[in-house]
Amino acid sequence: MKALMYTGIEQLELQQIPEPKGNFVIKVSGCGICGTDLKTYMKGHHFFKPPTILGHEFTGYVTRAPESSGFRIGDAVVVAPYAECGECTMCQRDLRALCRNKSFVSGGAFCEYVALPDDYRAVFKLPKSEHEQPDMQTYTLVEPFACVLNGVKQLAVGKHSRILIVGSGPMGALFALYFQQKGIPVSVVEPNESRRAIVASWDIDCHAPGEVDASQYDNIVIAVNKAELVDQYVKTIADGGTVLLFSGLKKEEILSVDSYAIHYRQVRLTGCSGFAMDDFHTAFDMISQNVSHYRRLITHSFPIEQGRDAFELLRAGKAFKVVIVP
Ligand SMILES: [Zn+2]
Ligand SMILES: [Zn+2]
User: Fold this and answer.
1) Better pLDDT: 95 or 250
2) When you count CB atoms within 10 A of the terminal residue's CB, does the N or C end of the chain come out lower?
3) How much distance in Å is there from the Cα of 147 to the middle of ligand 1?
4) Count of other CB atoms within 10 angstroms of residue 1
């Protein structure tokens, strides 16, 4: 099968490799490029050692399934790249995104076939009507959207909340689309003019940095990996507000934040990464209910042969979500 192999920093090669063996196999129809995939391509990553196949935001069709799975050949599905165990201390504390004993899909999905463990349960059948095939590309957004919903849980959104999203990359834009669908006032601050124009075309309030008074917002999501923004928004958010560090910073990065804001103004600083299965369920349901609302986030799709171009386009900041089609 064809596979887009990550062979080292800034290196992606189209290779022919054997199809994976197993009883539960998915033929990939599309896989979104995640911020983590891009970071790995640009700088390397301690989890993903080359040579390996990246990609975990995928949909496809079942080509082999064990009887016990409940799936049939030809079913259209979206697969969560991991699932929590439900039993460890983190799961028991209901911090399931932090599960210490997750089961994973082994191997990435920038390729034609992915094998799942026989007893893998984090697979969801896409709704299908008689005359319409499911929108396979839009459902690749379920995983990033699940991460966004895990982020929403860390916020303290109330009746009179106003949300500010800092950075409208794909994740920032997903946050904005979520709050828009929920009817909760949301604004976006983004330095890139063309991204701003696109977000504004979705009827989302969008500003250049410097045009925004952060004290008007009680929940601020930092969806861009710039350490200096953390203190800036802790200092300026409304009293009692919550700042969510959603974008990962370098592992060694030390933040210094305004203690006055935390002590006297009761500002909370929190963060998150990943998702739990209930986030994945909710993301799946919300996208199913309004496919076209989320569809606009996917601005490009590339055949796997042009996988490297897809990464480069994303790196240049010229796309929102890019899907690779094997
Ligand atoms: Zn992802
Ligand atoms: Zn667990």
Assistant:
1) 95
2) N
3) 8
4) 16
